[in-house]
Amino acid sequence: QVQLVESGGGLVQAGGSLRLSCAASGSIFSINVMGWYRQAPGKQRELVARIRSGGSTNYADSVKGRFAISRDNAKNTVYLQMNSLKPEDTAVYYCNVVGVSDYGLVEGWGQGTQVTVSS
To answer: For a Cys staple, 110 with which of 4, 19, 87, 114, CB 3.0–4.6 Å?
Structure first.
């Protein structure tokens, strides 16, 4: 299994910045994809950004040019730098990891961290 610990959420004014972190641990020896999803009240969970082991990235159209995802493979940690935040970015942000353990393919979700952007 994989355990994920998130940090970095909070309250920020529109136009401000936040940086989220997510550290993975457990019986996982290879992480293929690390990503961030978010879920706003009354809405479905959606992909924000993800990064593969080779460094390729995907972003939701709504965050392109404002958010940047990165990872530190040595620390099994993924980061999400969020700039120029807007009220519509308000949501619970979840870290997601897909990798390989002794038991095969595994996937883990973080507990979620609240990001609130005030206007």
So the answer is: 4
For residue 113, with 0-12 CB atoms within 10 Å meaning exposed, 13-18 middle and 19 or more buried, which class applies?
Answer: buried
Rounded-to-integer distance, Cα 113 and Cα 98, Å: 19
Q: What tokens appear for 113 in the block?
A: 């961290």
pLDDT in tens, 14-37: 999 999 999 999 888 889 999 999
Alpha-carbon span 71 to 79, nearest angstrom? 6
When the pLDDT of each residue in the chain is averaged and rounded to a whole number, the result is 95
Contact 34/20 with Cβ under 8 angstroms?
A: no
User: What is residue 74's DSSP assignment?
Assistant: T
For residue 90, pLDDT beyond 90: yes
- Strands 10-13 and 113-118, bridge-based pairing: parallel
